[in-house]
Amino acid sequence: MVEEEKQSNNDLQAQAPDKSATQDLDTAGKSLSEALRISFIVLKVIMVVLVVAFLASGLKTVGSDEQALVLRFGKIRGIGEKRVLKPRTWPYWVFPYPIDTMVKIPVEKKVDLVIRSFWYYQTQERMLAEPSIQKTRVLPELDPIKDGYCITRSERQDKPISGSTGSDYNIVHCKWKLTYKIDDPERFFKNVYVKDVKPGDIYFDVITESIMPLLKSLFEDVIVTAIVNYTIDDVMYEQVARLTEHIRRLLQQKLDTIESGIKVVQIQLTDKTWPLQVDEAFKALVTASQDRQTTISQAQTYAESTLNETAGPVAEKLFVALQDDTISGDEKELLWSQLAGKAQETITEARAYRTKVVANARANAEYFQELLPEYRKHPKLVIQKIYQDAIENIFDNAVEKFVIPTGAEWRFLINRDPSLKPKTSKGQTTQED
Amino acid sequence: MKNIAITVFIVLVVIIMGLYLVAFQVRQTESALVTRFGKPVREVTAPGLYFKLPAPIDHVHRFDSRMQVFEADLGETTTKGAVPIIINTYVVWRIAEPLKFLNAVGTPKEAEVKLYSQITDTQNRVIGQHSFGEFVNSDPEKIIFEKIEEDMLADLKQTVSDEYGIEVKTLGIKQLKVSKDVTVKVFERMKAARSLKTEATISEGEGQATKIKGDANLKSSVLLTAAEARAEVIRGRGDAEAAKHYKKLEEDPEFAMFLRDIESLVKILKERSTIVIPADSEPFKLLKEVPSLKPKK
Fold this sequence. Notes:
The structure holds 2 protein chains of 2 kinds.
Chain A: H1 2-56, E1 59-60, E2 66-72, E3 75-76, E4 84-85, E5 92-93, E6 100-106, E7 111-115, H2 124-128, H3 131-134, E8 150-153, E9 169-182, H4 185-191, H5 203-227, H6 232-238, H7 240-257, E10 262-273, H8 279-311, H9 315-323, H10 329-337, H11 341-377, H12 379-397, E11 400-404
Antiparallel strand pairs in A: 1-5, 2-3, 2-4, 2-6, 7-9, 8-9, 9-10
Helix pairs in contact in A: 5-7, 8-11, 9-10, 11-12
Chain B: H1 2-22, E1 23-26, E2 30-36, E3 39-44, E4 48-51, E5 58-64, E6 68-71, E7 75-78, E8 84-95, H2 98-104, H3 108-127, H4 145-164, E9 166-177, H5 180-246, H6 253-268, E10 274-278
Antiparallel strand pairs in B: 1-4, 2-3, 2-5, 6-8, 7-8, 8-9
Helix pairs in contact in B: 3-4
């Protein structure tokens, strides 16, 4: 019995450390389990956050001046018009990279490209100088390496210049400006080379810089091709609008042929000049043109003044009416009624004459009829009275009167009337006594 | 449950990593060539997702299939008729056949070297067939500049496509010039042409002015003549109206004529007249003697 108790105590003493070890293990396991559970929760949260961030990275906006394409595994997504995403107030969602990639193309921005390749060589210093200084110290020739220019055709000469052939040409310097925009983002993206955008680069600037060599080459090509069809005067003065339209059309054709998706907005000839080497000859023609215009203007002024003096403002119309039998008499009379100037004077004088001659005739007739009864009663007395009155009147007005005896011979030296002025024109004899 | 999630996660990671090893994208702006141990096995020109064996078995070579510009240097060539001209030609090109391009050319830089040589050949060959008068001519109908460019394009296009897998989209001449000496002669001719034009302008202006003045004088003359004719008619009407009053004089024409003569005489001798009259005329004979008058019964 005692041994059993001892055995029992020994068992109890042996079991006590085991129990405490188990208890320690349970505590550690619980801690580990708790840690793992928390880790899993954190991991889950992180994963959820990552998944949300991953999905949220697919939210994309398209700016008001942009249009966008979505590439799914490198290929443009969508059909027809849906291929191009337009700006809208809420964002688009696309699968995040590497499934989808959104490419934004600025389509509304108009960009200018200036071409100076056809201008004569100028140093920086000379370019900033006054125009009068810019044109001094000219070499007798143009250097094909340094100087830019365009070749224009010569005019058809009625009177050929010695040594000239049909392939004669002129040289002109010109500066151009092209304004363009991207019109078809899909074609542009597929076909036009654009450099990769590096960190810090502005995408629009990268596009502009990348397409500049292509546009410059095409633009210069169409300028050279078009301008050979025009004369230097066409380029300088007369056909600038037609030339720029010609160049615009050719350039657009080229851009469409290569499917660039670029639209020409405007072409401008910003500056042009004949070669400085022929400046004097060209200026002489400008002066001659101005003189010609002055001469013609003076002639027109003379013509207007002459016609105005002749018949007033209605002169031209009246002249046309006189030549045109289809114009009615009433219309012509209306024009005659508006007459002025010398022609009007002539007609006024004629009217005055008419009035006067009728009035005189009437007065004479009335005088005659008043006098006739008296004359019939006393013819001699009436005649005598009228005669004497006339003689009195005449002698009263006479400056000199000579009453000479009959039968005697008289000689008079009559002085010229001092009121008559001698004619002074050369080649004409003066009036002799 | 947790184990399933972890398993799915691991499988997904493995799949994604596996896809990275065996899949590749060809973008819309690219073409690609797949080589197996260096030997080309597949040419890809359409965009999309493709598969390959993992490296180092398969290797993908990518090529930018967008247009690129290359311009040759400014160079002299001669037209038919041995007229020297200086031109600068450019081409717009793209890689169309990656395999041919890789084998014959390699890189875009090398492509430009090949293009330069081909452009020079083309421009000498094509331009040599055309006279300078076909580039520029006083008769615009004889200018075939654009056709010459088209001929050059056709010539170059075929060669580089067949040999290098390059597609030439367009070609053009962006500078057309002549040598220094020729510009001097051109200037002389331009001056001569301007002088002729200056003279013509001056004489044309004078001629035009003379015509304008002549026309004005003619019109003035016509208008005055017409006005004179109308005036004549008016005067004639006046005379005709006056003649109606003269009928009243028919009662004693002799007396009427006397009155008319007297009126004329007074008018004629109205101013600054000198009169010489014999002393025996009326009434001056009164100066000589007293008349003997007797009253009539």
